UniProtKB/TrEMBL annotation:
<keyword id="KW-0238">DNA-binding</keyword>
<dbReference type="InterPro" id="IPR009057">
    <property type="entry name" value="Homeodomain-like_sf"/>
</dbReference>
<feature type="domain" description="HTH tetR-type">
    <location>
        <begin position="11"/>
        <end position="71"/>
    </location>
</feature>
<dbReference type="GO" id="GO:0000976">
    <property type="term" value="F:transcription cis-regulatory region binding"/>
</dbReference>
<feature type="DNA-binding region" description="H-T-H motif">
    <location>
        <begin position="34"/>
        <end position="53"/>
    </location>
</feature>
<dbReference type="InterPro" id="IPR050109">
    <property type="entry name" value="HTH-type_TetR-like_transc_reg"/>
</dbReference>
<protein>
    <submittedName>
        <fullName>TetR family transcriptional regulator</fullName>
    </submittedName>
</protein>
<dbReference type="Pfam" id="PF21351">
    <property type="entry name" value="TetR_C_41"/>
</dbReference>
<dbReference type="Pfam" id="PF00440">
    <property type="entry name" value="TetR_N"/>
</dbReference>
<dbReference type="InterPro" id="IPR049484">
    <property type="entry name" value="Rv0078-like_C"/>
</dbReference>
<dbReference type="InterPro" id="IPR001647">
    <property type="entry name" value="HTH_TetR"/>
</dbReference>
<dbReference type="GO" id="GO:0003700">
    <property type="term" value="F:DNA-binding transcription factor activity"/>
</dbReference>
Amino acid sequence: MVAKRRTETMEENREKLITAARKAFAEKGFAAASMDELTASVGLTRGALYHNFGDKKGLLAAVVDRVDGEMAQRAKAAAATASDDWERLLAEGIAYIKLALDAEVRRIVLLDGPAFLGDPAQWPSQNSCLDATRQSVIKMIEQGILKPVDADAAACLLNSAALNAALWIASSDDPQQALPKVIEVFTLLASGLRNRPDKPQ
């Protein structure tokens, strides 16, 4: 019972720190956020932060994982009403790209994430996204919707295109102006995978 309570307390402290860090990183940026202020705001010490995340960068990784995972879910929800599997895949990619305009996403995931955590393609949340895309691609290849290409390569390139489009928008001087250009090119690139049996080979 005591062990269970200790586990629950650790999980509660972890959630408190992620929530507080998410707010601080979104408002001030990773570099400017004070860990003393952050931990004090939720009644914890730096020791709790180190125990749960190792260091400030470990806390950023947890926050990025949370926000990036939510991005994938938001993109999936936005694409849920699409008419078929192909339209759903395309809509999901476009919805993910559009999230680059969200101030919290832009600061935490697309600017500070790569700057302090390295290549986003190596993040656990991105690997989860890649698996989901791969399954969709395999299904559509089997149905003849997509050309019979390598599913791993196709999923990797589709995900990379969406992620890098979002990164480009986030670092743009005028994200609103960059968005439609990126969506147009992303759509053209992705559409190259479609199988069109009605057209002469």
